Amino acid sequence: MDIAVIGTGAIGGLYGARLAHAGHRVHFLLNTEYEHVKENGLVVDSYLGDFSLTEPVIYNDITKMPRCSLVLYATKHTANETLFPLLEPVLEPGGNIIIMQNGLGAEQKLAALYPDSHVFGGMCFVCSYRESPGVIRNPNYERVSLAPFNAADKGRLGELANIFTGAGIDTETFTDLQLARWRKLMWNIPYNGLTVVMDCKTDFLVNDPAMCELVEHVMQEIVDAALACGSKIEAGFAEKMVSITKLMTPYEPSMKLDFRAGRAMEIDAIYGNPILFAAEHGFTMHYANAIRLVLAGLEEKHRR
Questions:
Q1: Rounded to whole angstroms, how far apart are CA atoms 177 and 61?
Q2: Residues 65, 59 contacting (CB under 8 angstroms)
C-alpha cells in the first residue's frame, strides 16, 4: 500500500516508520529535518525493538508527493487551517485519511473539504517523542484506537486495523468516533495541561497526593461531560489511564514540549472544543475551563 505521512514527528514518524518497516511504501513529508533525514535516515528507538530506515522516501514539498490510498495526518491541530486545504495532491480518489492528533472537531472539517474521501480518527495512546532530528524514542507503551467519522465507513475499520496490526502496532477499533475521542481526552485534558501548569512531568501528577486528587476530579468531569454528549465511557477507564501513566517513564506530553519550545499549544482542540461541545449539551466543564484559562494566560505571558 502507498501511504503518505503528513507530519513526520513523534506520532507520524513512529507509525509511518513502523508501516515502512513492515513493507508498505510510505512517503514522508518533512520540513526542518528534511536534509538531516535525507543524509542520516529515520531512526526509531523503541521498547518493542529498535530499527532504522536508512533511505526513507521523503519530501519537503507536498505537491511533489504521489497520490496515496492512505494518508496519516499527524500534525498538530494548530496547523489544520493551513494544511487541510493542501492535502488534495496526496489523496487518491476514494482514499482513506486517518487524523492522528488530539482533541475534538478535526474530522468534521476535513470531511467537509474532501467529501469523497473516507475520514477516520486515530487516537494514539503512546509515550513517544523526537529525541533529536530524525530520531524518535518510544520508551514504553503504545496503542492506537481507530474510529470512522461516517457510520457508512465502519466496514473499512477491519482493513485499516489489519494494516496497523500487521506492522506490529497494538490497535483497537471503535464504531463511535465521539466516544473514542472522549476516551483520549481522559488522558489529554488532565496530563497535557497540568504538566505545563505545574512545570512537571507525568510522574509528579501520579505520585503527589494533591495532584492525584485533582486529576481524579478532572477525569470524573470528563466522564460526566461525555455522558451528557451521548458517549458513555466504561467504568474503570479513568483508573486504567492513571495506572498506565504510573508505568510510563517520567514523560513530558506534547503540550509541555510545545510550551517549552515557544510553540502554540493545542488549547482549543484539547480544551476549548470539548468545553463548547459539552456546553451545547447543557454541561459545564469547570475544571477543564480553569486549566484552559491558566494555559491561555501562560501562553500569553510566554509570548511576551
A1: 31
A2: yes
Q: Are 97 and 123 in contact (CB under 8 A)?
A: no
Cα–Cα distance, 60 to 30 (Å, whole number): 5
> In the chain, where are the structural domains located?
2-175, 179-303
Q: Which three cell numbers stand for residue 67?
A: 497520490
Superfamily assignment of 179-303 in CATH?
A: N-(1-d-carboxylethyl)-l-norvaline Dehydrogenase; domain 2 (1.10.1040.10)
Helix axes 177-187, 237-247, angle to 10 degrees: 50
Q: pLDDT averaged over consecutive 10-residue blocks of the chain (304 residues)? A: 95 97 97 94 95 97 96 93 93 95 94 95 93 93 94 92 96 96 97 98 97 98 98 97 93 94 94 98 98 97 84
Which residues does the annotation mark as catalytic? 184
Burial state string for 247-280 with b = 16 or more CB within 10 A and e = fewer than 16: ebeebbbbbbbbbeeeeebbbbbbbbbbbebbee
Q: Quick check: 3 and 71 in contact, CB under 8 A?
A: yes
The answer to whether residues 127 and 257 touch, using CB atoms and an 8 Å cutoff, is no
Q: So what's the pLDDT on residue 302?
A: 85
Check: pTM over 0.85? Answer yes or no: yes
Residue 133 CB coordination number (10 Å): 16
Cα–Cα dist 138/189, whole Å: 21
> Is 285 exposed, middle or buried, given 0-12, 13-18 or 19+ CB atoms closer than 10 A?
buried
Closest CA to 282 of 231, 229, 239: 229
Cα Rg of the chain (Å, integer): 19
Return the CATH class of domain 2-175.
alpha beta
